[in-house]
Amino acid sequence: MDSYQLGSIYEIQPTVNFIGHAEAAAGIAWGPRFIPDYQLFHIVSGEAEVYYGAEHYVLGPGDCTFYGPQVPHKLVVIRPVVYFSLHFQLRHSSPEPQHPAYNIQPCSEGDLLQHTKLNYYLGIPNHEPLLIPPVFSMPALESIMLRIANEYRNEQTGYAIVLRALLTELIASIVRDRLAARPHSLERTKVDPALRAIAMHPENNWTIPQLAALCGYHVIYFSSLFKKCTGVSPKQYLITERIRKAKSYLLGGEKLETIAGKLGYTSIHYFSRNFKEETGLSPTEFKQQEQ
């Protein structure tokens, strides 16, 4: 297995070239091919496979695959997917998107099979170089991916600069998540009972004392530890998990009143406000956009 050094995180000037937020039916494939930039492919729902040489990985909801220029690869949809496909450069003086389509090149199955997958390493001050593997799971990326997609689609004044800022935020989020996932990092395992409880029962109005008790810690210590591990407060994490499930319910055709009730909201107004704060869209706008 080969490795590639991406340089220091302090040196990057990331540029969004393209982002797609779409659905794909079973059997659709991209590749085998080479791309001219980096790509982050994130599964919202459904199932796909990614091939690097003789190795392949199955991707499910929340999973990502990441690869760079001139890396032969192939993506195949197993079950209908909703996905984000983000193409970007890590170092470019201009933030203006440069669509990669004209420089995507097909390759043979032989080229694909001969390739050894790359592990990418990003330099982080005061840390060992951070591994960004070809496949990893990070469901929380959906929210910022949606913000990038909306900004890219709308092209409002200054959108290229906003895209650069959002992409920088996305990269920082991945870095924090990967640092927390390192084998020597035990902090995240300490809050796993709380994370599982929220994921299984987002409709509960979880209090910090309840979540702290599940983990066996004092409220003050738990709150500090939770934010260190997830980047947000327990309250914000619960809201994000609720909105993630709300999107699925909306796409399934359920009514706002039903969804709000399922997710523990006593007010449709409060549910709609949370939804817009998380996604930038009202529930109705989100459903129309997906349709």
Gist?
It is built from 11 helices and 11 strands. It is of the alpha+beta class and 291 residues long.
Span between termini: 42 Å
Helix content: 40-55%
Using the CA coordinates, give the radius of gyration: 20 Å
CATH C-level label of the largest domain: Mainly Beta
CATH topology title of the largest domain:
Jelly Rolls
Question: Please, how many helices?
Answer: 11
Question: What characteristic shape results from the CA principal axes?
Answer: globular
Strand content: 25-35%
Mean pLDDT: 90
Overall CATH architecture of the largest domain = Sandwich
Order of helices and strands: EEEEEEEEHEEEHHHHHHHHHH
Any idea how many domains?
A: 2
Number of DSSP-assigned strands: 11
Which residues sit in consecutive blocks of at least 5 with pLDDT less than 50? Answer: none
What is the CATH superfamily of the largest domain? Jelly Rolls
Q: Which structural class is indicated by helix and strand composition?
A: alpha+beta
Largest sheet: 8 strands, antiparallel
